[in-house]
Amino acid sequence: MTQDNLHLSRRTALRTVAGAALVSVAGCLNNGESPGSGNSTPSDKEGIIQQVTVEGTELIVEYSSEGGVDQINLVQPNGELFGQREIAAGSQQVSFEIGTSYEPGEYTVVALSGEETLAESSSVIQPEIGIQEVGLYRNNPEKPWDEVYGDTETDRLKNGEAYVTVENTGSGPEAIVELIFSGDVPNPVEDPRGSGMYETEQVVISPGETTDLFSSSFPFGSESEEGMGCSPDGNIGQFTVTVRTQVGGDQVSKSFDVQYSGSTEMSDCEVSITEA
């Protein structure tokens, strides 16, 4: 049995309407936008599909209310139908919840009137996560440490935990599901319990969003057997931060140079962190 027999073909998905027969359609349009653009400018001459954007975890389709559209289909990269929306009279927008379990790639929005395809627009929906910086309470007291860790544990935790700033420069939402510190930190934990993020299993990052991940593995706490400690004259090393993503299934890593000086105890240590 061929693959086309097992799944809806791309042409079928483009035209799927309840009870509709198959008819031929033109190939999908590609507007040439880069994956990081976060939206598409449709190329149908009538301007029926006016804009396709991703906001949070939703794909938003804006269309002309005068184009005679009665249904909007969304086709995923493998050619199968992702979803369809019936159009209410006078409306100009529909949305599809893509969440953080979608398949990255080119999605096609199809505007239909009955069995007739009026317009199509293709957009690449794909996250792109980058690590920007790592910081500690002693160098960044303005961060919401008390809000994250709570008043009772703050003094202990905020001196040993860290935040990692990550950015999504892609065009689709992403979920960070694990945070790992390895290398020359006082307490390297390559397999943290849970996600390695404080009291959460994942952090969703929308396209164009920058957010802070707060650790739960105590990477800059008391020195473990494999960790690097502080010294009055200064210990110099390098550590790596790794985040694991859900949509892309990637591990994104970045290395930082670090110096621990001014004390023999981590609680009083001066810690300087710079990009490697």
Tell me what you see in this structure:
The chain is mainly β and 276 residues long. The chain has 4 helices and 16 strands. The protein has 2 domains: 3-125, Sandwich (Immunoglobulin-like), CATH 2.60.40.3080; 129-275, Sandwich (Immunoglobulin-like). The protein has a 5-stranded antiparallel sheet, with no helix packed on it. A 4-stranded antiparallel sheet has the order 1-2-3-6, with no helix packed on it. The longest helix is centred in the N-terminal third of the chain and has 6 residues, at 10-15. The protein is elongated, with a radius of gyration of 24 Å.
CATH architecture of the largest domain: Sandwich
Largest sheet: 5 strands, antiparallel
Bulk shape: elongated
Strand-pairing-aware structural class: mainly beta
Count of DSSP E strands?
16
CATH class of the largest domain: Mainly Beta
Radius of gyration: 24 Å
Please outline what is shown here:
The protein has four helices and 16 strands. The protein has 276 residues and is mostly beta strands.
Question: How is the topology of this model organized?
Answer:
Blueprint: H1 3-6, H2 10-15, E1 39-40, E2 49-55, E3 58-63, E4 71-75, E5 81-86, E6 93-97, E7 105-113, E8 116-125, E9 129-135, H3 145-149, H4 154-158, E10 163-168, E11 174-183, E12 203-205, E13 210-214, E14 235-245, E15 251-261, E16 270-275
